[in-house]
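Input record (one chain):
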Amino acid sequence: MRDHVWQIRPQRNGAKGHTDTATWTQTVAERASPEWVQSLSRRLITAGIAIPVVLAMVWFGGWVTFAGALTIMGLGIFELDRMFRKIGAQPLTSFAFLVGLALLVGALFPTLRTLMQELTITALVLGSLSWLLLRRQAGTALMDWALTLVMALYLAWPLSYLMTLRGNTVAYHLTSGGLTATDGTMRFWWLLVVFFGVWAFDSAAFFAGRFLGKHKLAPNVSPAKTWEGVIGGTIFAMVAAYVFTRPIAPAVAWYHIVALGLLISFAATVGDLAESLIKRQADMKDSGSFFWGHGGVLDRIDSMLFVGVVIYFYAALIVHGV
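The corresponding structure, as predicted from the sequence alone:
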């Protein structure tokens, strides 16, 4: 999103008090400028390619989901490394990747998950500090250590929860009678709640903020975001939560739908702003250019990372075990 916020302000015709339709139409047309339409077209084309790939990873689970998560983590760590080095840091990128890999392997094998988490966190904290001591570069050592921790945990930790939420079984298998549900069905749909909830929130927030935005949400971090965008996104996140919880339990109470919509809205906004803060620190508009019209990998998954963790715990502790 651009850094300015458009505002619709209809003009009045003096004493008559009628809306100046021409001015209104002109203002809306300015918001839908050719540049904006072109940018939107690129976004739609990229989304049309990326969404089926993501859904395939969700559908099959297991090693397919692991491969997707590992690819996302690797690309994301590369983008973080580039941003961190712009501010003068020298994080242990390879070490962070290995720690992240171990966390994802733990999520792939549930019986190893707790052990792998304990081992990787211990190795991350103590191993990275020991490595930096051996490197003997005291000038930025503390910053390098802190950003190594961030690099490893910011991506791999939330992705491990998304993998756990999905599970290792294919959601359906083919029989002579058609598609038959397996034990992984509930997990499959919970992950769709995450993905479509975030996509619905982001899309609605994008359009609501573009055409209705007046009140800035966090001008010092992300000037383009508005409260109107958040409200519009929250409404559509609730709609997505309603649609994709139907297969889990058709009688999911209305307050769960509201809670899920609010949680998606809150977590997606915090995740987006957190990544914006990193980019602002590095003086970068986008984290990368991997997705045509969408920026980098981190630009696309920043909201998803936070939402996945929140929905995992809501599903496990409030609705039912996963």
